[in-house]
Specification:
Layout (H helix, E strand, L loop, with lengths): L7 E5 L4 H12 L3 E6 L2 H11 L4 E5 L5 H15 L4 E4 L15 H22 L8 E5 L12 H20 L6 E7 L5 H10 L4 H10 L9 H12 L10 E4 L7
Parallel strand pairs: 1-2, 1-4, 2-3, 4-5, 5-6, 6-7
GO molecular function, one term: oxidoreductase activity
Family: Belongs to the short-chain dehydrogenases/reductases (SDR) family.
Protein name: NAD(P)-dependent dehydrogenase, short-chain alcohol dehydrogenase family
Amino acid sequence: MERLNGKVAIITGGAGGIGKATAKLFLEQGAKVVIVDINKEVLEKTSSELDHENLSYCVADISKAEDNENYVEHTLEVHGKIDIFFANAGIEGVSRPIAEYPEETFDKVIAVNLKGVWLGCKHVIPKMKKGGSVIITSSVAGLKGFAGLGAYVATKHAIVGIMRVAALENAERKIRVNTIHPGPVNNDMMRRIEKDVSPENPKEVLKGFESVVPFGRYAESNELAEMALFLASDESKYITGCTHVVDGGMLTA
């Protein structure tokens, strides 16, 4: 049985690794999906690769209120409702100590990772159906510190706070709000982080991350998609205000 049959989902960061994998899985499970991202060419490529009649896309800079309003309006015009909101878009910034961190990069990370989630919740949730599901991508960096990733860590902690407030504010409408906390994921973001930490030897950085994961490897994007599917489906209808860690045991090490 299709676990999302008849449901309508918005996925921000929909052209990235986790977003694309989640869109594919949601479509397979019967959902109608709108993917949102800032790059039109990448969105078109992703849409072409997924090639599904129930998929559409909307170009948006999630750090801008108007763009959030636009993708909400697009979804309601095309599908008439919103059941699922996967606030997944995010950027990593750079790997630098706080004392050396560029202020303009800090501001950009805050704008996308924190304000973007806040704006999404502000504009999407009021338009959602009763009993809907909001899923926010945080990180293990939203539950512990990592040297050199001050801006990223700060935003990923902060959106846990947004999640908890939104869960309380929308409980009366039975809209549940949860965060997902991936460890390192085998995607383009981790390739950039590895190269930023050590331009000469990024593979050693990869090995270093793998060494602190008890499962001994990075997660695959589809493994995060499977957690998102559970939280999007009615199987999680009594789960809200929670942090869901998908890290191969990293936080227990």
